[in-house]
Structures are given as structure tokens and as C-alpha cells.
Amino acid sequence: MKMLYDTRDARYESIVRKHADRLPEYGHPMVRAGWYPLVEAMLNQVARDHPTVIFSRIQAGGGWLHVDIDNGSRPFDPIRDHRLSRLIQNFVTLSLSTCEECGSHHGRHVDATAHGCGTSMNRTLCEECVPVFADLAVTALGRPKKESCNA
Question: E-assigned strands of 30-75?
């Protein structure tokens, strides 16, 4: 199991090919494999319900999914725009309980500072994937487990 973004994954490549016209111009979705199904479902639903929408950002950060829409592609009609915002917020909310690594729906917020990392490394992980994250933090940072960032 890896904790790094692996953009060579076949599923990732399939998502990028299918939704290339909707993805950010200068970058693809930056999420871990556990969120691929979540992002794919969001892209599929947006493509079906709002075919002109283009994303300016789809990325994991701090343990939740960040999604931005290119303003020029937003629905002009306020009701349709509100529906789009609610649809995206639903997927962002789902990210808060979906493990970024394995896709389990038993994810919880993991405070990276407890593992010696900064808050930008916070994750949503299930209990099985937390130890892998802790080991990665120790290896990557060369710090003992549980070291405070303020030390």
C-alpha cells in the first residue's frame, strides 16, 4: 500500500481520459486511490447534469476533497448553479468519511501533527490505513513516532 499519489494507475488514467474536457487545464485530480471512485462518481454526475462545467481544481488537502469550478463554466441560472453547488458539496462531505487509501467508508480524520507532520498532511483514513501513514511519516521525515511539530 502506498501513501503517495500514483498517477500511473490504470483507473486514474481511465478517469482522466474519460473526463479530459472537464478537468483542470493545468493538472489532473490530485487524490489518492481510495478517492478515485468518489471523484469518478462526481465527474460522471456533473457530466450528466451539468455538461458545460469545467473544474479548476480537484485535490485532496487536509483530509477532505477540495473542488473548484471554473467560473466561466458555471450555470447562469441561479437554481441550476445552486444544484451544482449542492451536488459537489455532497461529494466533499462523503470524502470526510471515505479512506483516501483503500476507499473504505469507515474513514476518520487523522491529525498529522500526532505523527510529526504539518497539518497540510492531515488525512481521512480507516483504522487499517493509519499505521501505514504513521510508518510513512517516520520514514519520510526521519523522526520518531508521536514527535510534536513544535519540538
Answer: 55-61, 64-69
On whether the pTM is more than 0.90, the answer is no
Helix (H) or strand (E) segment spanning residue 69:
strand 64-69
Which contiguous run of DSSP H or E holds residue 85?
helix 78-95
Structurally, the chain folds into a number of domains equal to: 1
55-61/108-110 β-pairing: unpaired
- Parent domain of 53: 1-151
Alpha-carbon gap, residue 114 to 67, rounded angstroms: 27
Reading the block at residue 68, the C-alpha cell is 473548484
What tens digit of pLDDT does each residue of 37-82 get? 999 999 999 999 999 999 999 999 889 999 999 989 988 899 999 9
What's the alpha-carbon Rg for the chain, to the nearest Å? 17
Helix (H) or strand (E) holding 123: strand 123-125
